[in-house]
Amino acid sequence: MDDSSQVEQKTTPPSFDPSRQSQGKRGQVVVNVRFQPNGLVLAINNKPQNLNDQEWFDRLCRVVSTHYMALSGGRGAFSIPGDTFQLIWEANS
Length: 93
Fold this sequence. Notes:
Elements: E1 28-35, E2 41-44, H1 53-64, E3 68-71, E4 75-81, H2 82-92
Antiparallel strand pairs: 1-2, 1-4, 3-4
């Protein structure tokens, strides 16, 4: 029997969704946060001008809290896929 007649087809598993991958088409956006000793946000980067630091942190926590990592020294960081960050940015600008 000739094996060349049987062409193996590669199919993607049904659970595969490219938009759910950990890294979007635009890479990762890192949002660094510094906290005051009382726990309020002292500084945060990559924020829309119409929000203060605490408001931006609160909104990111509501939407992408799973991408947040607490760091030592009163710091933290969000590592957000670029495509997701773009959607959040547009909704809050």
